Amino acid sequence: MSAQKPETPARNLEVTGFTQDPVTVSALEESDRQSLMHPFSALAAQATADPRILARASGIFVADVHGNEFIDAGSGLWCVNVGYGRGEIADVMASQSRTLSYGMSFSGLSSEPLIRLATKLLQLAPGRMTKVLFNNSGSEANEAQIKIVRAYNNLRGRPLKKKIIARRGAYHGASIAAGSLTGNEVVHRNFDLPMAGILHTDSPDYFRRTNRDLTSAAFASERAAALDRLIESEGPETVAAFIAEPIMGSCGVIPPPVGYFEAIHAVLKRHDVLVIADEVITAFGRLGHWFGAPCFGLEPDLISCAKGITSGYFPMSACLVNEKVWEVLTSRPAATGVFGHGFTTAGHPVAAAVALKNLEIIEREGLLENAATVGRYLLEQLRKRLGSHPLVGDIRGFGMMCGVELDANKHSHQPFDDAQTMGSLLSKLCWEQGLIVRGGHGKAMAALAPPLILTRSQADEIITRLQRALDRLAQHLEQQNIWRP
Length: 485
Ligand SMILES: Cc1ncc(COP(=O)(O)O)c(C=O)c1O
Prior knowledge:
Layout: H1 22-35, E1 54-58, E2 61-64, E3 69-72, H2 75-78, H3 87-99, H4 112-124, E4 129-135, H5 138-155, E5 163-167, H6 176-181, H7 185-188, E6 198-201, H8 216-234, E7 239-244, H9 260-270, E8 274-278, E9 302-305, E10 317-322, H10 323-329, H11 333-336, H12 349-364, H13 367-386, E11 392-397, E12 402-406, H14 419-432, E13 435-436, E14 438-440, E15 443-448, H15 456-479
The protein binds pyridoxal-5'-phosphate (PLP).
């Protein structure tokens, strides 16, 4: 397929101040091929791949070293909530680096930004969260949750109650344990995952239900019944926790059907199973609220958050622990001894200062409200302008998080056989139109999660570019005799 330049040349970024000299750029590209091992990439293809070297970003826009500008409708990896290039965050980072450039949180050591941040998170969090354990990444947060859950049941004298249930398709990280929670074969293959003690139940992907006559309420009950059967077959005395994103993100923006979490909770309560909400994507405004769990009746004992906590300006994540779990963790000091967990840079004072400033911006600029109202507008306009597109099967979303999923047959909702490849093609065509979208693992789709500062006219522009990419895709598939409208 021939490359097509974005048709909207309007510049939003100053694209000077970095090298655009073709010789230097091609040397950089060659060095990238020679020296980097890119995560989530086909390693053998790296030797000949063209790396995309980003140079500059501001607001919702990023530019590469060739001077091409893109709207980043994926907020990087769902994380740049307040948008790129915030001078006041850079200032706080510099100033905190001068004052206290490093501080650990082991053994009672602390720092003022960290204490203020923990207090703030507990004020914002739903449920009866009472303590915060800081880490560096979403994977680390979920890894730590597994340890907390294990310690919890050891202290309750239930050493067999250790298994954790996640959902197929869910993304919870890429480390050995968090990667095991992830319900995606790409993360398991090559690494002998999932590890023992991690189980998966079906996702609440109502759009891709096999029985199309099923109501969403019946579908939700069916999923809860399947979870119940899994727990019963494993033995409830061996199942410790269930982990879920309020809306599934990386696997394709999948909101729970109405009544889903209520039905799931009934099962979990009956079997004395803890609930971990993975709010790594959904917290800090993505859904128009500080946290996503209350939007869908998800009532967690433990919450993982990361990404939007610093809007990606500095690595940081947090585990929030509720009173019930904390009480047990502190109930038998002699048996527990030291909680042997922590990382050198976890609870970093610079990360904490950045997070505080980031949360202040979200509050001051009303970004929760903007995510809700502009997000709703984005969803409405997507439905209005793309709903009848012959490739589009479903348009869904909540807050500033939308998914446009393609069907091979719009009427029967037959998916494409090789949906993943179709999704990659769409993403490539979006880049050519000056638009960065996220995909959905195993799905032919564009996931949109723009920075929360998005305006209505920018939302319109995203849809225009996406529409052009869809038209190009349709044209290409027809030419190749792969698909007909
Ligand atoms: C819901 C969710 N949990 C956990 C993670 C892992 O976070 P990290 O990549 O920071 O380890 C991600 C990353 O995309 C995520 O989307």
